[in-house]
């Protein structure tokens, strides 16, 4: 399991992009459609992902196989259904004190590690 993203939901993507790029000085890594932009953090493999997609803010962890991970962590409470994402699937989970976290896999993506 590796921390890959910090998910930040926003209502206004252009405003969020401007803040992350112009105020915080982060470099844009990639975009997905008209609703998601990721920003690189210096000296880190972790990225900030801002999106108008629904969900709570929280860390996103990549695993090799989402189904296997969920089966071996049966006590973790899912907040919603497993959703398709580009090249994989993800699920929002209940963390400590009601905080969210996400687990995803992307077996269709070429490994970069």
How would you characterize the overall build of this protein?
This is VOC domain-containing protein. It comes from Agromyces aureus. Residues 2-106 form the VOC domain. This protein is of the alpha+beta class. The chain has one domain (2-105): 2,3-Dihydroxybiphenyl 1,2-Dioxygenase, domain 1 (Roll), CATH 3.10.180.10. Helix content is 16%, strand content 40%. The chain has an eight-stranded mixed sheet. A hairpin with a 3-residue loop joins strand 2 (27-32) and strand 3 (36-40). The longest helix is centred in the N-terminal third of the chain and has 11 residues, at 13-23. It is globular and about 40 Å long. The protein starts with a strand and ends in an 8-residue tail after the last strand. The model has no long low-confidence stretch (mean pLDDT 91).
